[in-house]
């Protein structure tokens, strides 16, 4: 195998190690439904293998189906998450055998395949990028399921750099055009394409994500009880749900506590807030006299290099992510303290845009002008519209393989179990 193929093989191995680590539990934990919002873990496990079979073995390599009878069960569009426990799912041992069988054949295909042709699925190893990123995204989903379950054992406390209590509250992004999306990143998804020019007026954007201390001040100030701050549907959601704090938070006397993978600990006030819905982020921003950034504002502040007049792959440039630049890949099971990554700053000086927490933006998930679905409509196209808000940047649980300045994630505005926070923006006053 050449170097590129070796790299792909290493990525396949790494993501599988991760999936197996998250599912190395007793069968009962894997088959149980921890929340109607989430699949049983054993569904995710076999689903990633089935997806890999469909795309690499059947579509790219033309191999006959291994187990066509299970396709229906693992089709995410046929069965909503809440119904998945009632399906005749493969048991944990069978699921592991199945995905291992698929993987063995996938490595044979990788060895034999021509990564420069004959189809766009082969080119630059796109189909391998597709399944690697897909599995990492499901791993992050599994981690959210495990956090909901209260399951201990997932806290990993790799040393994160200390926070830094200096620097401006906001950075300024002057008016002007930038290139949004990508024409060149080979493993980018269809929804990141095509690259196109967007001309924005000048704006301010927070240098850092909103922290727990600032968010607690919003709560103490009665932010959850004041309809002035809330979008109308947000206010309805807040009243119906009775929500008064981020998910997994509880107050005891004067102290906020949180539960993190089964451990109860004081809320670290210097960390970015996470587990808030879009509605909460939107309300906080209004309370703070600001607003959420649009997706274009977020991407320009993160990725645009105004001197070179081109987009960077990461805020800091082209260099691959490493521990000194961003908190990714579940090295620690939490966001890093605010200000921990000065070396990871964008050209405009915005920090922690990649890693730590996904960031809600004000934008609906919509196609870019000239969008073409690839390789299938159900990855992005069926989600476009006014139902899902765009999330950017990637959390501490996201893998570097599925993070870049152009990467787009999306979810319902009420979602809170995902590792999501936000930062605010502000239009320049003239
Ligand atoms: C991009 C994270 C919203 O999990 O629904 C997984 C990714 N697509 N399988 C999701 C995805 C197909 C997707 N998100
Ligand atoms: Fe999937």
Structural write-up:
The chain is an alpha+beta fold and 430 residues long. The protein folds into two domains: 3-149, Up-down Bundle (Four Helix Bundle (Hemerythrin (Met), subunit A)); 155-430, Alpha-Beta Complex (paralog of FGE (formylglycine-generating enzyme)), CATH 3.90.1580. The protein is built from nine helices and 14 strands. The protein has helices at 3-22, 27-31, 41-60, 92-112, 126-149, 212-220, 232-241, 278-287, 295-303; strands at residues 170-173, 176-180, 196-200, 203-206, 249-252, 255-260, 263-266, 304-305, 310-311, 358-364, 389-392, 409-411, 420-421, 425-427. It has a four-stranded mixed sheet. The chain has a three-stranded antiparallel sheet with strand order 1-4-14, covered by helices on one side. It has a three-stranded antiparallel sheet with strand order 5-6-7, with no helix packed on it. The mean pLDDT is 96. Bound molecules: N,N,N-trimethyl-histidine (AVJ) and fe (iii) ion. The site of fe (iii) ion has 5 residues, from helix 3 and helix 5.
Topology:
Layout: H1 3-22, H2 27-31, H3 41-60, H4 92-112, H5 126-149, E1 170-173, E2 176-180, E3 196-200, E4 203-206, H6 212-220, H7 232-241, E5 249-252, E6 255-260, E7 263-266, H8 278-287, H9 295-303, E8 304-305, E9 310-311, E10 358-364, E11 389-392, E12 409-411, E13 420-421, E14 425-427
Parallel strand pairs: 10-13
Antiparallel strand pairs: 1-4, 2-3, 4-14, 5-6, 6-7, 8-9, 10-11, 11-12
Helix pairs in contact: 1-4, 1-5, 3-4, 3-5, 7-8
Bound molecules: N,N,N-trimethyl-histidine and fe (iii) ion.
């Amino acid at each position: 195998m050449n170097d590129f193929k070796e790299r792909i093989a290493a990525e396949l191995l790494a993501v599988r190690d991760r999936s197996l680590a998250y599912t190395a539990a007793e069968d009962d934990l894997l088959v149980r439904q921890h929340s109607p919002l989430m699949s049983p873990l054993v569904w995710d496990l076999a689903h990633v293998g089935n997806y890999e079979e469909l795309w690499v073995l059947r579509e790219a390599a033309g191999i006959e189906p291994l187990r066509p009878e299970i396709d229906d069960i693992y089709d995410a569009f046929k069965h909503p998450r809440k119904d998945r426990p009632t399906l005749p799912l493969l048991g944990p041992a069978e699921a592991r055998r199945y995905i291992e069988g698929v993987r063995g054949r996938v490595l044979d295909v990788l060895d034999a395949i021509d990564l420069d042709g004959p189809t766009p699925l082969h080119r630059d190893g796109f189909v391998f990028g597709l399944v690697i990123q897909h599995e990492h995204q499901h791993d992050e989903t599994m981690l959210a399921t495990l956090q909901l379950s209260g399951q201990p054992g997932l806290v990993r406390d790799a040393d994160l750099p200390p926070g830094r209590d200096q620097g401006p509250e906001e950075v300024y992004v002057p008016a002007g055009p930038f290139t949004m999306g990508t024409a060149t990143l080979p493993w980018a998804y269809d929804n990141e394409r095509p690259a196109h020019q967007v001309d924005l007026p000048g704006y301010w954007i927070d240098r850092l994500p909103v922290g727990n201390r600032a968010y607690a001040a919003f709560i103490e100030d009665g932010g959850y009880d004041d309809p002035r701050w809330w979008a109308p549907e947000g206010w309805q959601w807040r009243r119906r749900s009775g929500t008064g704090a981020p998910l997994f938070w509880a107050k005891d006397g004067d102290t906020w506590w949180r539960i993190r993978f089964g451990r109860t600990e004081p809320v670290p006030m210097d960390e970015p807030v996470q587990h808030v819905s879009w509605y909460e982020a939107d309300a906080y921003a209004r309370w703070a006299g600001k607003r959420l950034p649009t997706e274009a504002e977020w991407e320009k502040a993160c990725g645009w290099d105004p001197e070179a007049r081109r987009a960077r792959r990461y805020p800091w440039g082209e260099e691959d992510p490493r521990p000194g630049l961003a908190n990714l890949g579940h090295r620690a099971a939490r966001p890093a303290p605010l200000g921990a990554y000065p070396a990871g700053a964008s050209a405009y000086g915005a920090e922690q845009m990649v890693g730590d927490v996904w960031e809600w933006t004000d934008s609906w998930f919509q196609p870019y002008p000239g969008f073409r679905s690839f390789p299938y409509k159900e990855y992005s196209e069926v989600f476009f519209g006014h139902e899902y808000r765009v999330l950017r940047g990637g959390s501490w649980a996201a893998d570097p393989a599925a993070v870049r300045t152009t990467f787009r994630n999306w979810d319902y505005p009420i979602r809170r179990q995902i590792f999501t926070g936000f930062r605010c923006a502000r239009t320049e006053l003239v």
